[in-house]
Please model this.
Amino acid sequence: MAIQSVQSAASKENSTTRQPYDYRRANKLAYWASFGLLVLLALLWILPLLWAIDTSLKPETETTTIPITWLSSHFTLDAFTSTLANSQMWRWYFNSTLTSGLISLLTIFLASLAAFAFSRIPFRGNRIVFWVILAGIMVPGQILIVPLFTEMQSFGLVDTYWGIILPQIASPVAVFILKQYFDGIPAEFEEAALLDGASRLNIYWRIWMPLARPALAAVAIFTFVISWNNFLWPFIIISNNNMMTLPVGLATVQTSFGIRYAQIMATALLGGIPVLIVFLCFQKQIVQGIAGTTGLKG
Model:
């Protein structure tokens, strides 16, 4: 008994003298480790962009020198001025802005109507039709190139703006995102509007669309960026140089430039500037629309 009491007293003494685990210090270490990893990943992502900027500002003769250097003897804008002067860059900017803008507007209009119907209008086969639309996400776009081209050719829409626009306005992803957002809007708004005699179309246009502005903005921005960067379909449907969008036009410029790396980098930067501006101006709307941080709860 005496030995057991001595052992128990010793164990109690050890437990009282044992230092507690410092959770605050561990959390701080984990925070700085995560921060350092994110900084490293950001540097790896931005390094090619910095290299493109550096190359585009060099004289053409210095882009192929060995050993490779970051700093030039003198930076110049000759690559940008030559690109803008010797190509139809402004025309391609206009074509891309027009087609991408119309694609975004039409996608928002059609996808929001479909999402509202799936979310708020009960009809037979609602879920089946919705899942059939979502199945379109699993279909690679390349599979539809031949039938889409045949269809556009039969309608006489080859080498036209509508030939670029119409095949790109059907977006199952946009329908899914907007339906999920519409499902989170309280049903009391709809019930109050129905009691006041509002039609379904009025509810959609005057209540649901204003409440879903963050989601609509996010879908519009993503649709604009995707259509702006789309190369394959405009390349197939357009052969007229005046009708080319920016990605297709930049491909022809790069081919004509050959190994003039400064001008190739300049064209790539000029093509990416509008997309970068869109993200910088509307990043708040993108986060709100996707994360659903507007305070609306279902």
About this structure: Residues 23-56 form the longest helix (34 residues). The radius of gyration is 28 Å. The chain has a mean pLDDT of 80.
